[in-house]
Amino acid sequence: DVTQSEVTAFIGPSGCGKSTFLRCFNRMNDLIETARVEGQVRYHGVDLYQSEVDAVEVRRRIGMVFQKPNPFPKSIYDNIAFGPRIAGAKKSELDDIVERSLQRAALWDEVRDRLSDPAYGLSGGQQQRLCIARAIAVEPDVVLMDEPCSALDPIATARIEELIAELKTDYTIVIVTHNMQQAARISDRTAFFSVQVTDSGRRTGELVELGATEHIFTNPDDPRTEAYITGRVG
Fold first, then answer.
1. Are strands 172-176 and 142-146 parallel, antiparallel or unpaired?
2. Could you tell me the residue range of the domain that residue 204 belongs to?
3. What is the pLDDT of residues 18-60, one digit of tens each?
4. pLDDT > 90 fraction of the chain, expressed in percent and rounded
5. Counted domains in the chain
6. Would residue 146 count as lying in a domain?
7. pLDDT for 183
């Protein structure tokens, strides 16, 4: 379970399926032709993989921020306005939506005088905050973040971490990170994933345990979690 208005972090070694599992939450894996999903993902009591569920609406309710900043080849303004426009927002509403979203992403003061400039002109950290602003512009309930700081320097990373702490009052956040110190700093709950190798040599991911972050990092229930946290395996 992912708890509302909290930050849940996914940690574990490379190849354990953290990002793949994260993408199940908003059906991003549907876009991979060879992907197959079994089981259920329940959101407010509804299985998101039922045939009658609109995947586009799922992705509006459950937004995503990717590993590398990926602004659209548009202006700063149009990056934020793009989603609300498609969702049917009136032209008269867009200015307020853009300003509010950029303020929430702690970017407004830095770009307010150059909204018509290309988004690619922003620094890496600014681009990632722009992508966060773009994600929340359509008012999702949940924001998924797939290693959002992996391509950023320490200063930009610290700003994103501060932003996540601020955003969790309005959004439920699930973040994949390889940085265990980051998970310990910003998350309320942590899930540890591991890799199992079958008799045939196939590698599969496994959710080992999920719990309060302090418990996971100080007194985990499973010895595999402790071995990973302490650096004995990884």
1. parallel
2. 7-70+141-229
3. 999 999 999 999 888 888 888 999 999 999 999 999 999 999 9
4. 86
5. 1
6. yes
7. 97
Amino acid identity, residue 173?
Answer: I
Q: What tens digit of pLDDT does each residue of 128-171 get?
A: 999 999 999 999 999 999 999 998 999 999 999 999 999 999 99
- How far apart CA 222 and CA 208 sit, in angstroms, is 7
CA 165 to chain centre: 13
Examine residue 127 and state whether it is found in any structural domain, yes or no.
no
Contacts of 71 (CB under 8 A, 6+ apart): 79, 119, 120, 122, 127, 130, 131, 134
CATH of the domain at 63: 3.40.50.300
Q: How far is CA 110 from the centre of its chain?
A: 23
Q: Indicate whether 22 belongs to any domain.
A: yes
Residue/partner pairs of 149-155 with CB below 8 Å, 24 or more apart: 149/177, 149/179, 149/182, 150/67, 150/68, 150/178, 151/67, 151/68, 151/69, 151/124, 152/124, 152/125, 152/128, 153/124, 153/125, 155/125
